[in-house]
Amino acid sequence: MIIGVPKEIKISENRVGMTEAGVRQLVKEGHSLFVEKDAGVGSGISNEQYEKAGAKILATKAEVYQKVDMIVKVKEPLPDEYELMRENQILYTYLHLAAEPKLTKVLCERKVKAIAYETIQLTDGSLPLLVPMSEVAGRMATQIGAFYLQKDHGGKGILLGGVTGVRPGKVTIIGGGIVGTNAAKMAVGLGADVTVLDVSTPRLEYLDDIFGGRITTLYSNQANIETCVAESDLLVGGVLITGHKAPTLVTKQMVSGMQKGTVVVDVAVDQGGCIETCRPTSHTHPTYEVDGVIHYCVPNMPGVVSRTSTYALTNVTLKYASMLAAMGVEDAIMKDKALFKGLNVYGGHVCYEPVAKDLGLEYKPFKQ
């Protein structure tokens, strides 16, 4: 198969869809790789490294899309890329279509075979291609929150870990999944007073066990959320319902009741956000204020720690890229149940039920 790796164009997105090692592996398996010029520079991978691995460098994005059977990316295509996609071309990337009605319509109209990293799901319910970026984003959430809590960045002037004789900062994390767990690891490491809320009692038991009582675990309901939000110095939203738009758990009224200079980081913003006052921002203008509360809502947080993120991502995406390249979409998804769940758009229709439901579109399951 002919595979293309275009340069990402989302603001401050420095990741790339494949490392030079990934290229080398696919070339070894008999495939042809085309990489857009300077696609890997933001992740510290040069054109020469890609060429040495066996790829051919193309000068423009249009050339890449025109020549290849499968596009391997990091983030969803932006409007400048819509016209470049062709019928029956495979698109393999993060899509988050439940929050992208326009893109979903374009993928259907152009009859692209779209496979979303974030909905590839193993039988135990885990999302292997989302895990590494969720780890990165969760750890960054605490790091970023600590930064914006500084007075010179508009915050309350709180040191998360406190010092002798002064209480530590209070961190509330809504969602105890991969994002929440990693945010908690960083917050505990800094010495903060950490509370994690989740609706899964087994998950709360697990977190209580691994943190050895160093965090407070609470069942996630409106009363507990209201109390914790009001007391927070840093609030992290890390709720994910696979494929669906994130539920709104923190209302505007709750945010209005927070102290000025408090920081909110909504990692779920790429799925619509779980905090009502959140809207997508970018790395160039990452924050805004609502009632004096600082909001950080960048959908591609890992894009600025691109070296770490790109290599972590290729570690998990390459397996399925190899299957798709060797067998094509139809045979690959029939052979692998996890990959089957990754298929979001096929033959001009949405074939992933949660996306169709959230966008009010016809759901047409894939049939071979």
DSSP helical segment count: 13
Number of spatially distinct domains: 2
Gap from first CA to last CA:
20 Å
From the spread of the alpha carbons, the general shape counts as globular
CATH topology of the largest domain: Rossmann fold
Main sheet properties: 8 strands, mixed
Query: In total, how many beta strands?
Result: 15
Order of helices and strands: EHEHEHEHEHEHEHEHEHEHEEEHHEEH
Broad CATH class of the largest domain: Alpha Beta
CATH architecture of the largest domain: 3-Layer(aba) Sandwich
Strand order of the largest sheet: 3-2-1-4-5-6-14-15
Poorly predicted runs: none
Q: Structural class, from helix and strand content?
A: alpha/beta
Assembly category: single chain
What portion of the residues fall into strands of 2 or more residues?
A: 15-25%
CATH homologous superfamily designation of the largest domain: NAD(P)-binding Rossmann-like Domain
Q: Mind explaining what this structure looks like?
A:
The chain has 368 residues and is α/β, with parallel strands linked by helices. The chain has two domains: 2-120 and 306-359, NAD(P)-binding Rossmann-like Domain (Rossmann fold), CATH 3.40.50; 131-304, Rossmann fold (3-Layer(aba) Sandwich). Helix content is 36%, strand content 16%. The chain has 13 helices and 15 strands. The strands form two sheets. An eight-stranded mixed sheet has the order 3-2-1-4-5-6-14-15, with helices on both faces. Strands 9-8-7-10-11-13-12 form a seven-stranded mixed sheet, with helices on both faces. Helix 1 (20-28) runs parallel beside helix 2 (47-53) and helix 6 (131-148) runs parallel beside helix 7. 50% of the residues are buried. The mean pLDDT is 96.
